[in-house]
Amino acid sequence: xxxxxxxxxxxxxxxxxxxxxxxxxxxxxxxxxxxxxxxxxxxxxxxxxxxxxxxxxxxxxxxxxxxxxxxxxxxxxxxxxxxxxxxxxxxxxxxxxxxxxxxxxxxxxxxxxxxxxxxxxxxxxxxxxxxxxxxxxxxxxxxxxxxxxxxxxxxxxxxxxxxxxxxxxxxxxxxxxxxxxxxxxxxxxxxxxxxxxxxxxxxxxxxxxxxxxxxxxxxxxxxxxxxxxxxxxxxxxxxxxxxxxxxxxxxxxxxxxxxxxxxxxxxxxxxxxxxxxxxxxxxxxxxxxxxxxxxxxxxxxxxxxxxxxxxxxxxxxxxxxxxxxxxxxxxxxxxxxxxxxxxxxxxxxxxxxxxxxxxxxxxxxxxxxxxxxxxxxxxxxxxxxxxxxxxxxxxxxxxxxxxx
Length: 404
What we know:
The chain is of the alpha+beta class. The protein is built from 11 helices and 12 strands.
């Protein structure tokens, strides 16, 4: 049976003080400090078989910085996934609502194997070596939870025995080196110390802005060509003309926003590049690309004399949109899915086929085109105002990888 995790309550104070003696890392502190942490909702507990099996407490010394201060598991509940479930739950809760891209850190003893394995397996890396501040106390390692995806040089990794403190400290002195794993080497514990490749954020952001401008410019050229063709043809449906006009406006706005992102990058004023790019990406896809693609089979159904080929074309486009929406290439993949988001995505995928069927049956298509435009508008509003910045990282994806 897997442990259940919840926020600590003031009535948990007694059992938590008893568990403090079994702490894997840190100290529970005085009853007054623990009671304060419970009231401030900085303690989470795990319940297993109806009993309190463990707890994890955090500190918040600064806005955007959370320190894991203590984790304890009852002796009879060891090796049952209690500590891991607590840490993963806290990382999800604190990382999503408290730090907003800040830092989650922990400090553990150099030879504290259980907590080292736990932290390293949950996305932490040890970035600093801290000498002992009191005689007789072991040195410590500073662990930090990775938020961004970074890459390890596969040819720049080495093993250092835990007993060789000076070499561990020397290996971690460069800012691009960190402990990424712990293993057994000739019968004793050893740290794997890796060198991370350092990218230039300004250069990467500049390339992203340039790619956005080039992509939106290409889409705008295709849309304006089709829009010009629509005004030259008497058989072109008015509802599709309006859809293309809206797509032209939205794509032009995305170009302006991408240019603004480039200006923000050049001035480095408010560190708002990511937020600006989210506006450009969302408007480019839901205001430009998808309306343009949806208009193609509807137009084909209006001008062709073959009903079956029009229906097949619409079905093929809808199937292709379903595959795209569920792939890692879509904008929706970068945000959290919900029932509303899934419903609007389903409308976006299947309404073009419905419009084609209506046209093939000589029925007006404008009501369905209006619903499609409303669905795309709804998705735009949802991602711009109801979702945080794009993450691009799945919930359980490892945030450091070996460069292939």
